[in-house]
Amino acid sequence: MKRHANFRHWILPMLLLLGVSAAIGQTRITGTVTDSETGAPLIGATVENVGTSNGTVTDLDGKYAITAESGTALRFSYIGYSSVEKTVGAASVIDIALSSDGENLDEVVVTALGIRKEKKALTYAVQTLQSESIVESQQPNIVNSLQGKVAGVMINNSSGAPGAASVIMIRGGTSLSGNNQPLFVVDGIPIDNSAPIGGGIGLSAQNTNNSNRGIDINPEDIASLTVLKGPAAAVLYGLRASEGAIIITTKKGQAGSFRINYSNAFSYDVVNKVPEFQTAYKQGIDGNFNPDARGSWGPAFGPNETIYDNLGNFFQPAVTQRHDISASGGSERSTFYLSASRFDQNGIVPNTSFDRTSFRLSADSKIAKNLRAGGSVNYINSQNQSTLGGSGIAETNIIGATGGGGGGTIRGLYNWPLNDDARNYITEDGKQRTLLGVENDASFVDNPYWSVYNNPTNSNVNRVISTVSLSYDPFSFLNITYRAGTDFYDEKFTSIRSAGTVIGGEEKGAITEVDRFNQITTSTLVVTGKKSLGRHINTSLALGHNVESARSTSANWYGRNFIVPTFASINNVLQNERVISAGGARRRIVGAFADFNADWKSIFFLNIRARNDWSSTLPVANRSFFYPSFSGGIVLTDLLNEIGVANGESDFIPYAKVRASWTRVGKDAPPHVLGNTYFNTTNSFTAGPRGFIANVYAFGAPALRPEFTNAFEAGVDIRLFKGKIGIDFTYYNMKSDDQILFTRVPPSASSFISYLNGGRIDNEGVELMVNARPVKRSNFTWNIDLNFSRNTSTVVELPGTLDRVEQSDASVDGFVAQGAGFLGQSLFGINGDVWKRNEDGKLLLDDMGYPQVSAIKEVIGDRNPDFIVGLTNSLRFGNFNFSFLWDFRIGGDIYNATENALVRNGLSTKTLERGSTTVFDGIIESTGEPNTQQVVLDQNYYQTILRGNGQLFVEDGSWYRLRYATLSYRIPKPLLERINVKGLEVYATGRNLILITNYSGVDPEVSSGGAGVPGTGAMGMDNLGTPSTKGADFGLRLSF
């Protein structure tokens, strides 16, 4: 009942704001905004009433409607064009032709806390995408729509499964064990973009395709998206935005005529790339055929024997459809925007899907001359049906049940011998036909078809994001804005292993149910004053207060051994076969902040920001921490004109600006880590039910201090050749010290892990943005946007004797590689098994002449790319528009755990030399003599020795990818007038059409552990995930 009460608490004030009142003293202005050179309408141009929050955007025909008082000014702006202001008089029609300047320096950018600034006045790096740029990539996950379009941003998909999570990082990572993803803000309200690490009891981080919650946001509802890249840009949001921020502004209603927009898309996807299998050898052991063996270590195929294409038969074409409809309009005082969306996506893996239904309502009303109220409410239902990924069930789960990990669907597919048709998975008596794993008792493997049809994993999320706001102007120079909002969702997760599944301890069936609840409530008050000091100095000061409360709960039920084998329910399990656990977390952050701005003649700009936070997750003595920011900018071209060095605007360099900033920002600890952590459960498979508290899971740290990052940034913004070429270059250096580490400790400490302060990470990098207009004619334009970034993240210090901090695992039958930060080396390192060597690098061999696996893991790779490039081309010819994006990532290693598993199964092409002999160049460890012994590369060598050298499974992850190409056509307006349609556009889009890479796995853009793994996550760890897809979309956009 409390959750429903929370919903009413936010929705009822929203409804009270929707009253419509008559206009008094207002003039309704309409008109068209066009390109001054070509006469073409500018779609999405901004029209705003200067000094108010009243604004709108132009439609598909460049038309707008807005209400304004006589004597006030309207500003017309569009990216790449000079802004124009017009005073409202007696005329009710104002048509505007904007002139191109390469990039509009007067365009208003939404920055931290909803503060709007002209781009020219910014003293730090930001980058803004408009709605058209976001939706043209046809990505359901808003995170993926940024790929290749923002310098300094690195994004990785976790897999090609429907609803799979994506990881986003800006300018590397500043935390070894904490969250390195940016804060997401929608209409001024922070929202949750997290992804669960695991699926609950018995499931590990690699088991399920959990979604990041940013996937709940409908891209069609977004008007613009601004990326605040560094601490200087995001410092007003406090510790939540220490990794940058993604500021989303949603679409609003427009005063004037009622408008309905409808768009749809129908998509067809196929698997993009799969691993190469060896087709020379069939099922068996040590060269002998055995129909019950799980491995392909048998004899060679005969000339007339069938080789089944189990991969090609398994992955299916996937069909997706999307429908979006919106209605907007309003009176001269009140506007509204209402939208509904339905997204249905099927996966290339049978019986997998992701569905999203969304409804959104926003309204804005001018209650009085100097008082405006607004609000919005967004309801989303997301349903994800997936399958167990990775290795399936962990070999030893939390309740002690031990299994062979055979439940992973992709693992079962990549195990299945090619002499056997995997589609034949049901025996005559209706049971699963599986690989018995005669090699050992724990090597059973489930058939992949059995897994997808009998072992489903389902997630159902109900989410509400709501906001209310009041804006009051008591004087012309003073504004008071209050904004409150909440983001809460409930996720019900179910994972079933049907009876007959060959997972150790669960052959009679098992079920996991998890109910998660998460809520973030935010309240912000900002008072802003503006004052001119003389004729040339303009100042503004914003003072504010912010309170954020977050809470989450989780209830977990696990049961095994169904009483009725065909009925999967926790109620179909005996009491002593159940485990029930629960947990929760709370955090409150209170902040006070100030933002001072000054400029002289719009030539010199100064920005001073400061914030103090009080966090409930830190000890009382360290709970309060302060961080400042100083930044400035100089428009050199205007300065030269001012002092008389230059006379007027130069055609070669019409604009040049330099900027610099220094910022210190903090980060607190996760909730409830000051004390020891215990497991609280109600049963442990005992004869009688009982409750108990398990051993310490993690040692607490009662004296934790906050992390701090000191960041320096400098940049230059230049326009060349009458603004036809724009160049924006940024250099940054960030030092993050006093790391809050969550690291493993020796078993003698009686705990797995512990929290402690210590360590430093340095990030250094450059970003380059280039935009150019090679051609601009009345019937043909060509625009180019280039984004380049390079970042290095180095672990400079670690506490005590630590030489590394491990972050994520990719385990394959006992051999493990981990994402890890290494002292003096990369934060994105790979920690893995290696062969033993002496100080001179010579192999230390056993007495038989084989290499030996070292007991000490070493750094075997660096997942951080050397640089990232995104290149977008946009061409318009008449009513045709064609755009495409090339995405390049050069460097960065991938640990191919999938290939390691294929070697284990005998299906890897690395095993084709089986049975041959070789002499390893090394030293016999017991004698110290050079090796001369010839050894056979047999099944044991590949499975227990070769797989123990992780360096053999590290590959270069470079790629060149045609991320998308889209062609659209706008139906001429005279044809539409006959059917009373305002606009109609049809389009076709291709996604991932070209992938050029030397990586042997499915896709070098991979993060097998999803988006919930802390630190640098599981980026670059390829462990039996669903392959990526390529596809085509066909759709239309219709306006009435």
TrEMBL record:
Family statement drawn from the similarity comment of this UniProt entry: Belongs to the TonB-dependent receptor family.
Database matches in InterPro entries: Beta-barrel_TonB_sf (IPR036942), CarboxyPept-like_regulatory (IPR008969), OMP_b-brl_3 (IPR041700), Plug_dom (IPR012910), Plug_dom_sf (IPR037066), TonB-dep_OMP_SusC/RagA (IPR023996), TonB-dep_rcpt-like (IPR039426)
Transmembrane helix listed as a keyword: no
SUPFAM superfamilies the record matches: Carboxypeptidase regulatory domain-like, Porins
Cellular-component GO terms for this entry: cell outer membrane
Keyword annotations of the record: Cell outer membrane, Membrane, Signal, Transmembrane, Transmembrane beta strand, Transport
Claim: Transport is one of the keywords in the record: yes
UniProt-recorded name of the protein: SusC/RagA family TonB-linked outer membrane protein
Signal sequence interval, chain numbering: 1-25
Domain TonB-dependent receptor plug, first and last residues per copy: 119-244
Predominant localisation class: membrane
Pfam family, one: Plug
Organism: Phaeodactylibacter luteus
Superkingdom classification of source: Bacteria
Record membrane topology: Multi-pass membrane protein
Annotated NCBIfam families: OMP_RagA_SusC
Subcellular compartments: Cell outer membrane
Domain Outer membrane protein beta-barrel residues, every copy: 695-816
